[in-house]
Design goal:
Layout lengths: L7 E4 L5 E4 L6 E4 H9 L6 E4 L21 E5 L5 H6 L4 E6 L10 H10 L2 E5 L6 H14 L9 H11 L6 E8 L2 E5 L5 H8 L3 E2 L10 E5 H6 L4 E5 L16 E5 L7 H18 L2
Parallel strand pairs: 3-4, 3-6, 4-5, 6-7, 8-10, 8-12, 12-13
Antiparallel strand pairs: 1-2, 8-9, 9-11
Helix pairs in contact: 5-8
């Protein structure tokens, strides 16, 4: 089909144009993308996870998506592209962390899907700002007939900026991993960079080889003496034993937030609440 003959088309973050001779209505999306589309009023047919995910969808990554109303196709090596295609899917929405590589699907499975159905890939990696990521998902949703209701993102952003004073608590983002802990490098995560841009005092972990994380032991983590901890709540993270962090206030952190005004407003409000409560 030529682009000129297409009823629907969209240029993704690889620069590739997906097109169809009818409006896509049966969308299968990566969990983060599916939750984002739902925030724009679009219920996907199904969702899939990543190599980190198991036989059920990760509730932490699913936002407000009504999981009982969508099909879960697994993730990583367990995702069967034939099952996705036989579901009648007429659009697949995936994410990338750079270089256009599809995240969460085996390369051969991704190629098989793309040979049979339109595949849109949106970049959520460290080269993009939170605003840019949100804008790209909004553009995709608009092309599919979706629109996000008005939210209080601007108010949440200003409230956080007010709470993040010069003497505000030190904040550390981390992902527990049993006897070890992955400390997030703030510059590598669009949501954490957004926090620092609003004045939040996010702590840089020790230097090391990891691009996104610095992996250390719990004693070293505790020695950093964070006052607030953003703790990864995804299913692949170990449940946090807060006692390891002394008196630090712990709040949940989803590194794969839905890319919507509503989800980002909730995140900023949550951090602002923690900063404000710490001084009470």
């Amino acid at each position: 089909m030529t682009e000129a003959a297409a009823i629907w088309q969209f240029r993704d973050d690889r620069g590739q144009v997906s097109s169809a001779d009818r409006w896509p209505t049966k969308v299968v999306a990566y969990l983060q993308a599916g939750a984002t589309l739902w925030d724009h009023g679009l219920l996907p047919l199904g969702v899939f996870g990543s190599h980190h995910d198991g036989p059920v969808p990760d509730r932490a990554k699913s936002g407000r998506l009504p999981l009982g109303e969508v099909t879960y196709f697994g993730g990583g090596g367990s995702l069967d592209p034939g099952r996705v295609l036989s579901s009648g899917a007429d659009l697949v929405v995936a994410v990338s962390y750079g270089g256009g590589q599809v995240y969460g699907i085996e390369p051969d499975a991704a190629k098989h899907l793309e040979a049979q159905a339109p595949v849109v890939v949106l970049d959520v990696g460290q080269e993009r700002s939170l605003d840019e990521i949100r804008g790209r998902f909004a553009a995709l949703a608009a092309s599919l007939g979706g629109a996000e209701p008005p939210t209080a993102l601007d108010a949440a952003r200003e409230r956080l900026r007010t709470a993040a004073t010069g003497d505000a608590p030190r904040v550390l983002a981390l992902s527990p991993a049993g006897d070890r802990v992955h400390l997030a490098r703030p510059h590598s995560w669009p949501d954490l960079r957004a926090l620092t841009g609003l004045g939040v005092r996010l702590m840089d972990p020790p230097a090391g080889s990891g691009a996104n994380w610095s992996t250390v032991g719990w004693p070293e983590t505790a020695s950093l003496a964070p006052q607030i901890v953003l703790a990864d709540t995804r299913a692949n993270a170990t449940p946090l034993d807060a006692a390891r962090l002394g008196t630090a206030r712990v709040i949940p952190w989803n590194p794969e937030l839905p890319a919507s005004h509503a989800a980002h407003a909730r995140f900023f409000t949550q951090v602002a609440d923690a900063l404000t409560a710490h001084g009470v």
